[in-house]
Design a protein that fits this description.
The protein is an alpha/beta fold. The chain has helices at residues 7-22, 43-55, 70-82, 98-102, 112-120, 124-128, 152-158, 168-178, 190-202, 225-239, 252-260, 273-282, 326-336, 339-349, 362-367, 371-380, 390-401, 412-424, and strands at residues 32-37, 60-65, 90-93, 131-132, 135-136, 139-145, 147-151, 181-183, 264-269, 294-297, 312-318. The chain has a five-stranded mixed beta sheet, sandwiched between helices. β1, α2 (43-55) and β2 form a beta-alpha-beta unit. The longest helix has 16 residues, at 7-22. It is globular, with a radius of gyration of 22 Å.
Length: 430
């Protein structure tokens, strides 16, 4: 077995490269803070250097990249924190996994002044994903949400007024009428949990009744009116082939490619699809006329009488409870999450800000003409179940709701409820 890297080994290798580029070294007594980042195009490393420069020698930030997929990120972070790893100064955290880290005390308390600044400068949906048991335990860095993207030509043919809220039933009927396909994510992956949760929340319910209770007392609400409607939507798209033959293995990228093609019509997906589409057009891989045919609006409603509850994603920053420099780490977090850096990260890396002020910046509105819709969606967004047992719940949902064509609205919700509760009681295995 390979030994766990020490703080010195983890930070030194990263800092050494930075020092070679910089041509100088920090003072020997300058603390080095390690920031465990999710993979990106170098935006977090750039901000780390900018905040290091701004610190004026008080600290240096070294970045250490986590694995590509969220499940592996969770596993590495959990193991390190449980082992008391003192290098866990700053961590980029996926919101669904925050309760699992907060409940056993793996996260350092957020100072009151940091909380106050975050509450004042963060959109409502992003704040919801930063708390556990009504306490802020992390600080939002960037937020994310899914929009409803549509081909204007198809919406016109279907007779849909996209300036008004639309329902999933209307989109299904539009796809039938125009012989086109819906861009949804039907793979057995986290994207299935994202879709199901948005449908249930959009129906006025929560998947978990009381997320703070012990595992054996957790009760899920998939077999509810909203849960059964969610299953009906997923099942209909799957059984009628409205999500393409590739739906069982279709995640975000695949559904984007479907939407860009000749049978594309409507799609729920994250904002990355806009710069990705623009890049493909510039490279000559897509028609130059395609962007003009793409519109966007807020997420579709599960039922006509309930406002939509778009998915919430993004990254929050937490500080490890065993960090040797928690005060400096929170100071660095404030620098990283400043409006200036959130704006920069959106423009350069395509990840939407959690700070509403960033949406007023001309550089944002120029590159993302749908910025106002993203901001509106983040105000409406609902997090996935905030529970220490999220991994078990999500994995169970993926097993019971994928492929979509196997979902039966009459039996799948109740069977999923029973399965999840049996797993959490230790009576069944995932």
């Amino acid at each position: 077995m390979r030994s766990r890297p020490t703080r010195r080994a983890t930070a030194a290798s990263v800092v050494a490269a930075a020092l070679l580029l910089a041509g100088c070294a920090p003072a020997e007594d300058t603390p080095t803070l390690t920031w465990y980042t999710n993979p990106d195009d170098g935006g977090q490393a750039k901000i780390a250097q900018q905040c290091t420069d701004a610190a004026g020698g008080r600290y240096t930030i070294a970045t250490s990249m986590l694995p590509n997929d969220a499940a592996s990120q969770r596993e590495q972070l959990t193991r390190r924190l449980a082992a008391g790893d003192t290098s866990m100064d700053i961590m980029s955290l996926d919101p669904p996994f925050i309760p699992e880290l907060a409940e056993p005390g793996f996260l350092a308390p957020v100072p009151e002044h940091v909380q106050a600044g975050a509450r004042e400068n963060t959109l409502e949906g992003a704040l919801a994903g930063a708390t556990w048991k009504d306490t802020m335990v992390t600080v939002p860095f960037w937020a994310n949400t899914q929009l409803l993207w549509y081909r204007k030509s198809v919406a016109e043919r279907a007779g849909l007024d996209m300036t008004r809220p639309v329902t999933w039933d209307q989109l299904i009927e539009a796809a039938r009428a125009t012989d086109t396909q819906l861009g949804v994510q039907g793979a057995r992956a986290e994207s299935m949990m994202v879709w199901l949760n948005a449908l249930v929340e959009g129906g006025g319910e929560h998947i978990i009744e009381d997320p703070a209770v012990p595992a054996e007392q957790v009760r899920t609400r998939l077999d509810s009116e909203a849960g059964r409607k969610a299953a009906e939507i997923i099942s209909t798209i799957g059984r009628e082939g409205l999500g393409s033959p590739g739906l069982p293995t279709q995640a975000e990228n695949e559904s984007m490619l479907l939407f860009q093609g000749s049978t594309g019509s409507f799609m729920v997906n994250w904002p990355f699809v806009w710069p990705a589409t623009q890049a493909s057009v510039a490279a000559g891989a897509l028609p130059a006329s395609l962007p003009e045919d793409i519109g966007w609006t807020v997420y579709p409603r599960t039922t006509a009488d309930h406002e939509a509850a778009p998915p919430l994603g993004g990254i929050n920053l937490g500080v490890g409870a065993q960090s040797e420099h928690p005060d400096l780490a929170w100071e660095a977090v404030q620098c990283i999450t400043s409006a200036e850096h959130q704006t920069q990260y959106f423009v350069e890396n395509g990840n939407p800000p959690a700070n509403p002020a960033s949406y007023e910046d001309p550089s944002v509105t120029e590159k993302f003409p749908m910025a106002d819709t993203i901001r509106q969606s983040l105000e409406m967004a609902a997090p996935r179940p905030q529970t220490p047992y999220y991994n078990e719940v999500s994995t169970a949902v993926q097993q019971r709701y994928a492929p979509p064509s196997d979902v039966d609205p009459a039996t799948t919700p109740a069977a999923a409820d029973t399965f999840i509760q049996d797993v959490l009681r230790g009576e069944r295995l995932l």
